[in-house]
Design brief:
The protein has about 180 residues and is an alpha+beta fold. It is about 50% helix and about 20% strand. β1 and β2 form a beta hairpin. The chain is elongated.
Length: about 180
């Protein structure tokens, strides 16, 4: 009879252990499914595309009125350079970016001293080293032009240079001695 009781007790214990093991498995699977669902939800949200955009008026990036920038073409010409021992011809376009309040003064000096301006720019290009003319951003030439043109055009009533920036949108060299 003791054998029967011990067998009954051992079957109850094994049934209880298998129930606990089954419960643990169900809990682990449920947790994995919840984590997977959260991950999929996160990925779908991230890949759903950009959020809606509201249209608004374009804010002015630079000054308005007298401080608004104006571009004035200074010169579009060909200049020679022989710093490499060969004759190179550089097709150049130079544009000045000035404030609108200085535009009239710049135009007046530009018309009055056209030959002086052209000669000064030509000298800068004739004296330039080949590596300066081949810089990707033309930093050296732009600095030299800015210094020269600020000497010519001077400063305004506020003590600021009349030229905000010198732009060189075109500077292409061609060998002309061949």
């Amino acid at each position: 009879m003791a054998d029967e009781e011990s067998k009954a007790q051992s079957t109850e214990e094994s049934a209880g252990e298998s129930k606990k093991g089954g419960l643990k498995t169900i809990i682990v699977v449920a947790v994995i499914m919840i984590v997977e669902a959260a991950g999929v939800g996160f990925l779908v949200k991230m890949m759903s595309g950009p959020k809606g955009v509201e249209a608004s008026e374009l804010a002015m990036l630079e000054g308005t009125g007298e401080d608004a920038p104006v571009e004035i073409e200074l010169v579009e010409e060909r200049f020679q350079n022989m710093s490499t021992g060969n004759v190179w011809e550089w097709r150049v376009q130079i544009v000045l970016r000035v404030r609108q309040k200085n535009q009239a003064h710049i135009e007046t000096i530009k018309e009055r001293d056209a030959a002086l301006l052209k000669e000064g720019v030509a000298l800068i290009f004739r004296r330039a080293q080949d590596r300066h003319l081949r810089e990707p951003g033309l930093e050296t030439i732009t600095r030299q032009l800015t210094t020269y043109l600020n000497e010519i055009f001077g400063v305004d009533a506020d003590g600021m240079p009349r030229i905000d920036r010198v732009l060189v949108p075109e500077c292409k060299g061609f060998r002309s001695d061949t």
